[in-house]
Design goal:
alpha/beta; Rossmann fold; two-stranded antiparallel sheet; 7-stranded mixed sheet
Length: about 325
């Protein structure tokens, strides 16, 4: 889990710099090296690793438009993922989907788009598992703002009605774009909504990866054994803006430095070393491996070719 968190963080740190290449400063306008908007997950790593460590290739994960930490934790091919974000033909979708539409059938991962769009897909995967008599689990990651969307309630209702192996992970990073949770949500935490559907709910405080691991372990076991859905909400922190170039006028300027003191990677590193179960040398080796994999992925993307213009509609329309 620590190695996956470091990999995700280093990946996002590199993307901060790469994304600005060729763009007009401040608001990042222009195509540049990486086209389109960019939503980074720096600080939210525990939500992804805490549950994906319990999953297999046969389990489905759907992610929203801030998907890199989920993809990395699920085992998406990092080179192909980076090439896709760069718009290259070696990408997962041959450069056609980009950052917000990552899809890797090899590990059953898809980026369902914005807000709650991925939850119905996860319900479909969970229904498939039940109809085929498998123990596959479907996990839908969403932001706390998406829990107020109709798709959240419709999906949970069906999942509960059909007793499906679905886990919805709500990443509460305090803001739905620029709207504070307290201004949009009538309840304190979305795990409380589980009672309305007669399913299990769990709340993870302080962006704690170990607590997330334990809550997810119970939820996955529940789903695999036919005991139905779970809603997990994790209190997490978005260190960066909603998108790269976000002026963050809605946010107190003193807030982010304070959050950085709660960095889950530094906290887990300290926890590991103080337990004396992991040496400093082992941790440094994990960090080295993670960073090397990320560096190789970015180089692969840079070295790859853009699709030829005449191939733009290949694999899109069929005559």
């Amino acid at each position: 889990m620590y190695e996956q968190m470091v990999k995700s963080r280093y990946y996002e740190d590199q993307m901060v710099d790469v994304y600005t290449e060729g763009k007009v400063p401040v608001f990042n306008i222009g195509a540049g090296t990486v086209p389109g908007e960019m939503h980074l997950s720096t600080g939210q790593e525990p939500a992804a690793v805490g549950i994906c460590v319990h999953l297999t290739k046969e389990d489905t994960v759907t992610a929203p438009h801030r998907p890199h930490h989920h993809a990395i934790a699920k085992g998406v091919d990092l080179k192909k993922m980076t090439a896709e974000i760069f718009g290259k033909e070696t990408g997962l979708g041959k450069g056609k989907g980009g950052h917000m539409h990552l899809f890797d059938p090899e590990v059953k991962f898809s980026c369902g788009g914005i807000v709650a769009a991925g939850i119905p897909h996860a319900v479909g995967a969970a229904l498939t598992s039940k109809m085929k008599g498998k123990d596959w689990v479907a996990v839908a990651f969403i932001g706390e703002g998406a829990a107020n969307a109709g798709a959240f309630h419709e999906s949970l209702n069906l999942a509960a009605l059909w007793n499906l192996p679905l886990i919805v992970v709500v990443e509460d990073n305090s803001y739905g774009i620029s709207v504070a949770k307290k201004d949009s949500t009538a309840i304190e935490s979305n795990d409380l909504r589980a009672a309305a559907y007669g399913v299990a709910g769990a709340y993870v405080k302080d962006n704690d990866p170990i607590a997330m691991y334990k809550a997810a372990e119970e939820a996955v076991a529940r789903a695999r054994s036919g005991q139905g859905p779970t809603i997990i909400e994790i209190e997490t922190y978005r260190f960066l803006g909603h998108f790269q170039g976000d002026p963050e006028l809605y946010r107190d300027k003193a807030e982010v430095p304070g959050l950085r003191q709660l960095d889950p990677i530094l906290k887990l590193r300290k926890r590991l070393t103080e337990s004396e179960k992991v040496s400093e040398a082992e941790i440094e080796e994990m960090e080295k491996r993670a960073k090397q994999e990320v560096d190789e992925a970015y180089q692969f993307a840079r070295d790859s070719n853009y699709p030829e213009p005449e191939a733009a509609l290949n694999d899109v329309f069929q005559s």
